[in-house]
Specification:
Layout (H helix, E strand, L loop, with lengths): L1 E5 L1 H9 L4 H7 L5 E5 L1 H9 L1 H8 L3 H12 L2 E3 L7 H11 L7 H10 L2 E3 L3 H9 L5 E2 L1 H15 L1
Helix pairs in contact: 6-7
């Protein structure tokens, strides 16, 4: 099973449209991916809750139900367990792009996983620095198909 760390924008996108490609990946990849989130992501979701509610057109309780359902798909690791060296490497990789992404990259490094993001600037910056473990949604769909085919 491949470990995948979700960037906050993936969670935002799923909350706004759970029936699209992102929702499909999150809710129909049990045998392929183990998804991880971090506390920073939870903070970001709550920080932008009103905006999410307005854009989604959902009531507060409907959005809360969707969010809770989504959280059942994620594993959380206390960020204090991530070694300092992973934080330092993550900071070197993304501090010039977006320091808010440091926790996601640090968690990805620590878990030896893959980072799934919809952030084009982050994706491009990390790829240019030879960080191979970053995927956008289209790449995640291809990866799932490839792993699924190999398994059968």
């Amino acid at each position: 099973m491949r470990i995948v760390v979700l960037d906050t924008n993936i969670v935002f996108s799923c909350l706004l449209n759970s029936t699209g490609s992102i929702g499909d990946l999150l809710f129909n990849s049990d045998a392929v991916f183990a998804f991880y989130g971090n506390e920073h992501m939870r903070f970001e979701i709550r920080k932008h809750w009103e905006k999410l509610r307005k854009i989604s057109g959902l009531s507060d309780s409907e959005l809360e139900i969707s969010y809770q359902k989504l959280l059942t798909r994620l594993n959380f690791l206390n960020e204090e367990l991530i070694p300092q060296k992973d934080w330092e490497k993550a900071e070197l990789l993304v501090s010039d792009t977006d320091p808010d992404d440091i926790p996601f990259v640090a968690l990805t490094r620590h878990l030896k996983g893959t980072l799934w993001t919809g952030d084009k600037a982050l994706h491009s910056a990390l790829k240019s620095k030879r960080f191979r473990w970053i995927y956008n949604t289209a790449e995640m769909l291809k990866l799932r198909d490839k792993i699924t085919r190999q398994g059968h």
